[in-house]
Design a protein that fits this description.
Substrate Binding Domain Of Dnak, Chain:A, Domain 2, Rossmann fold, binds FE(4)-NI(1)-S(5) cluster
Length: about 650
């Protein structure tokens, strides 16, 4: 193996499947990443293709300081500066990312409304408590009304959030008061979700907004419309509809696939169909049908953020994260890969063609040439799920080319919604974040970090996630994780309570052991980063750690990011007061001025800023230094002396 090959991943199952791929001459994203280098001009945000006079390329000079004359000459045909071009490109990423999360949210609202109207007979309200809480938050009358009636009003209010033209998004009120005031003062409170995305697309059109600060103001507004709008709506309604997650034990990695069963991989983002598949695939009738085709039953496994959704709520095992999607098929054991929207590589169809695997698209918004399409309809959810499962079962006898499933898999404890953390820490009758805040104040826990986001084939798979997270927990930083980052952590054995003893600093280990939680808490899919916003707000509200998210000893990171959604998420974290470090690559380096605006000036406005650091150990240092600065500002930097637990404290923690 060449040096470069060994650097492809730190995950043994991935390496095993890559070896099979190369033995069989099958191309994957890993091969393509080696063959095709990224365009350096596009990568730094210096290519403007927003009109047909271009694309105009305005790359920054490499390896030397730019003179004033050179800087002046670095403009597009219309005169757009490198600053404007970088800001436009960056903001268009935010627009696309916010649109993706929000359109996911919209589809969930639709499903929720159809359920409330009694038209989706296969779905119901699973979390009544959350429904009632939402009703209170949104000013929906409860009285003696049925869940359906209440749900219908909530659905209509949520639907209105997308098309609202004026005022403020309802969930903005979930943020700390001080944060809301900062947003109001800066004029970035989102009015309606769709409006902010559309306005951002307009303002970045040729010849409109040409002041990067002003472009960015709308960028922030659209990002906030994602985090405190579309994504938060998605999470809240999914919890009502499918249940709020609570701790659940499962397994992760390609080793969860079964040679003797029909394997169905559910891949993508929206949990509605996956929920139905989880139900149907375990039914006796389906198992009998699978037996009639020579299999022992149906094994459902997840991939990407759909995987996180059904893991969190049902303990459905996870086959892998983003960069493992093609590799799952290369096991030769996957009868069907069922996809909906987002993070689905077109290369899947090519790989599926080398085996018997059926690639099945299910959403009218996302079709793939060559794939089979079985449209999912919420009103006929069960029927659709059965049709898909039967298609997979019928495909079982067609296996060819040999089955090779890696052994590697790890146990994972997931299901840490905000509500669950609240109960675990505070106990059912006095749910609160008090013990967390107290342990931060007394220094056992140094701070909290959100480590989230994608895999990126330009950087060794899972490596930066795992290294960064290990560095943080070793330094007593509790990690909250979602998305592909959470899966990387789980595969590395960091999401079980026993990991506390092995990988954490003494203080964090003590707290994790007392409460019985892993040091890295799985909070769900990427839309569930809204749970991290809510958790951060709960910490502020519980007191003792300042009046705003920006005062918390907390930081965020996406060390292997690649999607536009990640930029939207990062921007709403920063605008919410969280210092956020990205790895892999940074898309605005073509303009020093604009980059400094993000990396330095934002701090004055939002109390938080962006940073870029591809080395995960250095990134962890930046986060820890930030956490220590916040501790100092709060006057709790002296409190990090070690205290041993006595029984009374232990009982208090265990609630
Ligand atoms: Ni989110 Fe990245 Fe995709 Fe999920 Fe994974 S790649 S931005 S983590 S699956 S959305």
């Amino acid at each position: 193996m060449s040096e470069e090959r060994r650097q492809r991943s730190v995950d043994p199952a991935t390496l095993e499947m890559l070896a099979r791929a190369s033995a069989e001459g099958i191309n994957t994203v890993f091969d393509r990443a080696e063959k095709m280098k990224p365009c350096p001009i596009g990568a730094e945000g210096s290519c403007c293709k927003n009109c047909a006079m271009g694309p105009c390329r305005v790359p920054a000079p490499r390896g030397k300081e730019e003179t004033t004359e050179e800087k002046k000459a670095r403009v597009g045909l219309c005169g757009a500066t490198a600053e404007t071009i970088a800001a436009r490109n960056f903001c268009r990423m935010i627009a696309a990312g916010s649109a993706a999360h929000s359109d996911h949210g919209r589809r969930i609202v639709e499903a929720f409304r159809i359920m409330a109207e009694g038209k989706a007979k296969d779905f119901t309200v699973r979390d009544e408590q959350k429904l009632l809480k939402l009703a209170l938050d949104m000013g929906v009358e409860i009285g003696s009304r049925s869940n359906q009636e209440i749900a219908l009003d909530i659905a209509h209010r949520c639907e209105a959030e997308f098309g609202k033209q004026e005022g403020e998004l309802l969930f903005i009120k979930n943020a700390p008061l001080k944060r809301q005031e900062i947003w109001r003062k800066l004029g970035v409170v989102p009015r309606g979700i769709d409006r902010e995305v559309v306005e951002l697309m307009h303002r970045t059109h040729m010849g409109v907004d040409q002041d990067y600060r002003n472009i960015m103001r709308q960028g922030v507004r659209a990002a906030l419309a994602d985090g405190w709008g579309g994504s938060m709506i998605a999470t809240e309604l999914q919890d009502c509809l499918f249940g709020t997650p609570s701790p659940v034990l499962s397994e992760i990695n390609l080793g969860v696939l079964r040679e003797d069963m029909v394997n169905i991989i559910i891949h993508g983002h929206e949990p509605t169909l996956a929920e139905m598949l989880a139900e149907v695939s375990a039914e006796e009738e389906i198992t009998a049908y699978a037996r009639s085709k020579g299999a022992k039953g149906v094994n459902l496994a997840g991939m990407c953020c759909t995987a996180n959704e059904v893991l969190m709520r049902h303990g459905v095992p996870i086959a892998g994260n983003f960069l493992q999607q093609e590799l799952a098929i290369i096991t030769g054991a996957v009868e069907a890969m069922v996809v909906d929207v987002q993070c689905i590589m077109q290369g899947l169809q090519e790989v599926a063609g080398c085996f018997h695997t059926r690639l099945i698209t299910t959403d009218s918004r996302a079709k793939i040439t060559g794939a089979m399409h079985i449209p999912f309809d919420e009103q006929k959810a069960r029927e659709c799920a059965i049709a898909i499962v039967k298609t997979a079962i019928d495909n079982f006898p067609n296996r060819r080319g040999g089955v090779h499933i890696p052994q590697a898999k790890q146990p994972v404890v997931a299901g840490f919604s905000h509500e669950t953390i609240n109960y675990l820490l505070g106990g059912l009758f006095r749910a609160s974040y008090r013990p967390l805040n107290d342990n931060i104040i007394n220094g056992r826990i140094r701070g909290v970090a959100g480590v989230v986001g994608c895999n990126n084939a330009r950087t060794p798979h899972d490596s930066a996630h795992v290294t960064l997270i290990k560095e943080l927990i070793k330094n007593d930083v509790l990690v909250l994780s979602t998305g592909c980052g959470a899966m990387a952590a789980a595969k590395a054995g960091l999401m079980v309570p026993e990991a506390a003893k092995e990988f954490c600093g003494g203080g964090l280990a003590e707290v994790c052991e007392a409460v019985g939680i892993p040091p890295v808490l799985h909070m769900g899919a990427c839309v569930d980063n809204s749970r991290i916003l809510i958790a951060a707000t709960a910490m502020v509200k519980d007191g003792g750690l300042g009046d705003d998210i920006s005062e918390l000893p907390a930081a965020g990171a996406a060390p292997e990011w690649m999607s536009e959604k990640a930029i939207a998420i990062g921007q709403y974290f920063v605008a919410s007061g969280v210092f956020t470090v990205f790895g892999a690559t940074w898309p605005t380096l073509g303009s020093r001025e604009f980059t400094e605006y993000l990396f330095r000036d934002m701090e004055e406005m939002y109390g938080a800023r962006w940073a870029f650091e591809p080395d995960p150990v250095k990134a962890a240092r930046l986060m820890i230094e930030h956490i220590d600065r916040r501790r100092k500002a709060l006057g709790i930097d002296k409190a990090r002396e070690r205290i041993l637990y006595d029984m009374a404290m232990r009982r208090q923690l265990e609630g």
